[in-house]
Amino acid sequence: MDIAVEVAAVANQVYISHNLRESLMYLPPNVKQVPGIKAASIDGFTFLDDSSEKADALIYCTGYKFDFPFLTPECKVRIEGRRVMPLYKHLIHTELPTLCFVGLPFKVLPFPLFHFQIQYFMRTLDGSISLPSKDEMDEETERDFQKRLALDMPPTYAHQMGSMQWDYFAELADCLGIKRLPPVVRMVYDYVADRRKEDMMHYKTESYTLLDHGHFARNQVSP
């Protein structure tokens, strides 16, 4: 969506091809939403509803795959889709616990994620946090994965957090014995998510002031 909005500023017509259940809201007037692509021709595309449009270029926005070519087979890292294994708390290799992957979870607030993950890993290295046995870590990891499947999340969302990030952050903070994120952080996160749906074109220009642990203010944006 972000790319479509940027391209719309310099293109005559932009088509967003997607299979989302709900249409995207408040897009530029020269952005049209169409179903997923069924077939390509020399000068355009046919969509799943058999409609067609002419187009000069296609931008793939289909995500990415994890790849760690710098790791040798001895590192015993397995990748299935977008699931990196075997990682305890989406972070620490259960068999080689001095190997960690900071920042894998997505649909999160990235900097709090890094903040908690790095501190947790450092504490395991200096011995102030003792990790469970490999079997126990593997069991917890599998429980987390099965929980996601039970929520109808596909395996490719093995590291997706969304609303689960808050419990994840709280768990790491409690293990570290440090303060959890104040409630206002989640309040702003959820509010901005709603603003993105309401005003895709302008929500990024808005800023916020945290007043206390439970209140924030949206700052006026100059026209």
UniProtKB/TrEMBL annotation:
EC numbers for this chain: 1.-.-.-
One Pfam family in the UniProt entry: FMO-like
Coiled coil: none
InterPro entries from the UniProt entry: FAD/NAD-bd_sf (IPR036188), Flavin_mOase-like (IPR020946), FMO-like (IPR050346)
Keywords: FAD, Flavoprotein, Monooxygenase, Oxidoreductase
Cofactor: FAD
Presence of the UniProt keyword Flavoprotein in the record: yes
Enzyme class per UniProt: oxidoreductase
UniProt entry tagged with the keyword Cytoplasm: no
GO MF term list: flavin adenine dinucleotide binding; N,N-dimethylaniline monooxygenase activity; NADP binding
UniProt family annotation: Belongs to the FMO family.
Protein name, as recorded: Flavin-containing monooxygenase
Organism this protein belongs to: Cryptotermes secundus
